[in-house]
């Protein structure tokens, strides 16, 4: 392990590599990737399509095995998914045969929470993501954005200490996106979770993160910098803040550099 590891390190990634084989041709998705994530931090990972972001999150979540290198969680090697880690994937993983309410309840059911408490907590989370009135709907009866919100509520129902989020708000309209970003920041401020949030939106990365990691092809880290813009951050005010404008420019340049 690197000397940057401290007792507050939650995730430690070292020399991580992932190669897929398709039609006998090897595809390198991630090469020699190192990352240390401190407890309670909100890290946004920014990168263009295809640079390996989802592959990296899948590896952090223990859903795929690395070709090389290691991922450890609180000092122990990650060998599979764990209940302390919530993962909001890019693709829809709701159960089509369960209603919104039943989908959100699932982690509580698995944890053995009594029915009454489950119902109350699921209802509260459904309200938080703005879906009251849709409890009895099935995923096929919802818009893509609504399904995203159900997935978010379901992830939160498991009360994970670490959240891995793969472009969770990308498909939402601007207003809803803003509301859910604010809700996520509130949750984070109250709960102190560790968040790794993948996006390809520079503004979103700056609005949310206290650290931004910019990736180039095969997960090459082009820039890794703290974002100390004061909180709470208001998107409208930020856009005219000279510090934000300078950071935006820096990240734009990093993304461009990463594309080369
Ligand atoms: N299961 C797979 N089999 C073969 N190749 C894959 C597989 N998963 C990912 N890849 C390849 O690995 C590379 C990285 O993919 P990945 O999904 O991690 O990128 P990404 O940065 O998350 O992209 P996006 O922003 O578009 O979601 C791509 O070239 C992709 O084609």
UniProtKB/TrEMBL annotation:
Keywords: ATP-binding, Nucleotide-binding, Transport. It holds the Pfam family ABC_tran. It comes from the Bacteria. The lineage of its organism: Bacteria, Bacillati, Actinomycetota, Actinomycetes, Streptosporangiales. Residues 11-242 form the ABC transporter domain. SUPFAM superfamilies: P-loop containing nucleoside triphosphate hydrolases. InterPro entries: AAA+_ATPase, ABC_transporter-like_ATP-bd, ABC_transporter-like_CS, ABC_transporter_ATP-bind, P-loop_NTPase. This is NitT/TauT family transport system ATP-binding protein. Gene3D superfamilies: P-loop containing nucleotide triphosphate hydrolases. It comes from Nonomuraea fuscirosea. One of its GO terms (molecular function) is ATP hydrolysis activity. Transmembrane segments: none annotated. CDD domains: ABC_NrtD_SsuB_transporters.
């Amino acid at each position: 392990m690197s000397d940057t590891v401290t007792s507050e390190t939650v995730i430690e990634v070292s020399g991580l590599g992932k190669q897929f084989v398709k039609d006998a041709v090897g595809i390198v998705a991630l090469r020699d990737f190192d990352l240390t994530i401190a407890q309670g931090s909100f890290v946004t990972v920014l990168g263009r399509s295809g640079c390996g972001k989802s592959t990296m999150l899948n590896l952090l979540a223990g859903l795929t095995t690395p070709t090389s290198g290691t991922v450890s969680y609180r000092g122990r090697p990650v060998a599979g998914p764990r209940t302390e880690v919530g993962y909001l994937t890019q693709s829809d993983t709701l159960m089509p045969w369960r209603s919104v309410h039943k989908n959100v309840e699932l982690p509580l059911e698995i944890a053995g929470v009594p029915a009454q408490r489950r119902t109350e907590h699921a209802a509260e989370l459904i309200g938080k993501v703005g879906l009251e009135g849709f409890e009895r709907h099935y995923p096929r009866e919802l818009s893509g954005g609504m399904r995203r919100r159900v997935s978010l509520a379901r992830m939160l129902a498991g009360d994970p200490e670490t959240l891995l989020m793969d472009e969770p708000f990308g498909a939402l309209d601007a207003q809803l996106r803003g509301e859910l970003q604010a809700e996520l920041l509130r949750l984070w401020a109250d709960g102190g979770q560790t968040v790794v949030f993948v996006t390809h939106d520079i503004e979103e990365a700056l609005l949310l993160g206290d650290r931004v990691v910019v990736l180039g092809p095969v997960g090459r880290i082009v820039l890794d910098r703290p974002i100390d813009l004061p909180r709470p951050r208001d998107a409208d005010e930020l856009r005219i803040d000279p510090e934000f404008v300078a950071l935006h420019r820096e990240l734009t340049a990093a993304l461009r550099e990463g594309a080369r």
